[in-house]
Amino acid sequence: MKRYVYINDDELSQDLYCDNRISNTKYTILNFLPKNLWEQFSRFMNQYFLLIACLQLWPLITPVNPASTWGPLIFIFAVSATKEGWDDYNRYLSDKKANEKEVWVVKQGIKKHIQAQDIRVGNIVWLRENDEVPCDLVLVGTSDLQGLCYVETSALDGETDLKTRVIPHACMGIDFELLHKGVIECPNPDKDIRRFDANLRLFPPFIDNDLCPLTIKNTILQSCYLRNTEWACGVAVYTGNETKLGMSRGVPEPKLTAVDMMIDKLTGAIFIFQIVVVIVLGIAGNVWKDTEARKQWYVQYPNEGPWYELLVIPLRFELLCSIMIPISIKVSLDLVKSLYAKFIDWDCEMFDIETGTRANAANTAISEDLGQVEYILTDKTGTLTENKMVFKRCCIGGIFYGNETGDALKDLELLDAVVSGSPDVVRFLTVMALCNTVIPIRSKSGSISYKAQSQDEEALVRAAACLHMIFVNKNANILEINYNGTMAQYEVLDTLEFTSDRKRMSVVVKDCKSGKIILLSKGADEAILPCANPGQQTRSFSEAVDQYAQLGLRTLCLAWRVLEEDEYQEWSLIFKEANSSLVDREWRVAEVCQRLEHGFEILGVAAIEDRLQDGVPETITTLRKAGINFWMLTGDKQNTALQIALSCNLVSPEPKGQLLLINGKTDDEVCRSLERVLLTMRTTNSEPKDVAFVIDGWALEIALRHYRKTFTELALLSRTAICCRVTPSQKAQLVYIIKSCEYKTLAIGDGGNDVRMIQQADIGVGISGREGLQAARAADYSIGKFRFLKRLILVHGRYSYNRTAFLSQYSFYKSLLICFIQIFFSFISGVSGTSLFNSVSLMAYNTFYTSIPVLVSALDKDLSERTVMQHPQILFYCQAGRLLNPSTFAGWFGRSLFHAIVVFLITIHAYAYERSEMEEMSMVALSGCIWLQAFVVALETNSFTVLQHLAIWGNLAGFYIINWIVSTLPSSGMHTIMFRLCRQPSYWTTMFLMVAAGMGPVLALKYFRYTYRSSKINILQQAERLGGPILTLGNIEPQPRSLEKEATPLLLIQPKNRSPVHEPLLSDSPNTTRRSFGSGTPFDFFQSQSRLSSSYSRNCKDN
After folding, report:
1. Where on the tree of life does the source sit, at the highest rank (predicted)?
2. CA 846 → CA 238, 288, 335, 467, 895, distances in Å?
3. Which of 376, 447, 722, 801 could form a disulfide with 371 if both were Cys (CB 3.0 to 4.6 A apart)?
């Protein structure tokens, strides 16, 4: 589909296209309530609670006042709606400010002020320096005589370097005030900020009214800023929410954590249990009613009831047991998860002093997944390295420079060649200086600085300047260089831009002095060397590439070719035609470029150093000890990637480590290579070696297309992989493969080419680096340096998982406790579904009495941060889901049942035999629940703070204060109850008995486990509390993995439960089935069968 934009024709575009009003709001005043309610009731739990609340409106079946359910339900919904409404109101204020901003438009040659929201497609918008661009514009005029302007796109793509934009050549030399009519043919709005394939045609009286191709370089997009340019103007082509930025906005797909999925499963199990209980008690109640109840004179059942009489008692029990599923769990989890995110934002130890960047949690819902990460897939350049490129060595005409000094810029032989004007060196330096998109900027003092979108290009231009080939000025299409004091000018005729598919960039220039047309090119060795002139020997250049790659240097090959005038003119017509295409322009342009980029004269090889970031080797070593597998995905050469992998401890050198290469150009070659590596991996996994496989992009493409199952099996066997020459889409595919086998993946990168990988992973981490903020903005978390990943996972991830595991299970525990007491009471009340507790108590129980202590569990730390960082192996408990699984939940379920029995029996024996009224007995049982829960929270808390003491014991005191106040109200149904109870010594004796009987066995069991079956965490806790040195956890090697039984094709995999062995919360021994991660790292516990070695029993999805 196409869009036709008519310049300065408001009437035609008014009905066709939207105005420039920006709207990022989710609601309006009219639809807020219905839309928000619809969203909230789209969740199963909320639908369930609504059903329960509606059933309670039926007086015949409700055992309590409907307010006991409606009150908490409305309160929780109101909290969620208020939060949504407040966020949306802030978005409205931001939109209103942008929409009402004053901007200039030009109509009939006259400039006038209007509000930004009134801009229409086709209007000419006039901008001054430092103005924000209000919509997507096609440039038609600038203050620069050559039609250039500079824009800052940091708000769009996060890149801080200025970018050059130029007006179309059809508008060159025309006063923008005379541009009254014309048409722009462009595609319908899309979100691709790097592509704009359009055409411009100006109407007469302009003579040259042929089609003029437009690209993204002829546009300035919404939210960019005009810099270093007095003024610029452009035609509005996309407005409002149809701009490229507007189309990019949207709510990302929500990510569901492993903890959330487990909570959903447990909720489903509780719901099934609840239905069973309701059916059993409903049948028992109807039987008792028809047999025993009619014998009792005080039970006045009619002889014949309505048709639905059999449903009344089951429905009563359904309402009575509805609190098994805690209504407050969703709100509680949302609150503590928001707090986890704030802890990350506030962490001063993750503040990057160099860039002034703080860690930021953009996604507040997945912090606990950080503690369960099993695979980290990382980019190399800018993520593991600093992305500060320094020109180090070069090979020109077969002569190596910089090998002795380690720095070519200090090599006397090269300096002599520069001074003497060696032809090979001059041509090499010319390509270094001109084949780029760098912008030279001269300061008032006369010094020249360079603005570049690529760190590689900046390094080459700076190195050329140091070697006396100085890129002085760029004036429209004229480039000026100064070599040894002699000025030379070149006219840029065409630019063949770099793409990830072509892997090279070329420019066609014309020497203004000699008139020669020259093609200058630079790129990866596999993109340049095969295009060499058949008569030229390239062996020395290949050797140079290999030598530099062995040193961990990035390599670029430089070449040029002199073009004949006729050849260029013929090619230029085809290139212009391809550039004018609105369909498949990128593919057509690449095909045309291929026609010119051949027969190169290879000039040499440039080698650039990109140093590792501080702390990278230590971070990788620590996280590997935590059982995390590392994959490095890079676009660099294999040898360069290997050297970086060795230097950052990603792989171990021989003999401790072993690298297995997967290569090949055909299907058969890749198949044989895969089988060989897979066989080696199966036979060497039992050996004490750190085995890794290496694969390049070409072989990876074949493997993913034809041998995906075999590759997946290999991926699950290897702790480490190095994937070279991979494209952004391949990075995302690799993440998907591992993720589809139900492993928790974390992807980390720093550039726009990492965005797809980051968004595909369970957790995306972006580094705010020199390539801009695209990755950081697309990620769930952003950090300043790679080394902060260690703290993000080990400290924040682990604490978040532990806290959420406790909070969720405790929420079920307290709800089950009160529900079991209600069930027991039904056995002494004729199985009639009568409630022991009054409506006020039930309403306040989950909402007020028990919520505050559990919320402050977000501050609990089982171990100090220092201990956690020193012993990363303890992350295994989180990775294995040891603290939240069906078995641990069974422990909490049993605890709630035991405590309900204790509270009920003691209450009945102390108060039931006509010594007190029903309300007194009810309050005694409720008091016992509150006391027990206070001690349970205290027992499970590892590190007490003043706030936690206030929450636990202050909440207990608050319970009495609230009930004393309620007891003063005659209409409350609890008049004087609490006053009478508190004056009775027997009440306090009963509370003591409940706490002693309820907590005694729990304490004994905890003491037994702590003393005789200590886990490694318990050992570290004891060491911390004794105040002595932290003890070693030992050096227990994993059992050798036996793969003979498992060496079967992946097609024969039988699905198996992800967590085959579970242990109760109170028996936290480390003997769970867990994978062995290979012997590259000693693991201090989990001496059982490997999870990876049994990975074929995983339910790997067919990709």
Report:
1. Eukaryota
2. 52, 32, 15, 75, 18
3. 801
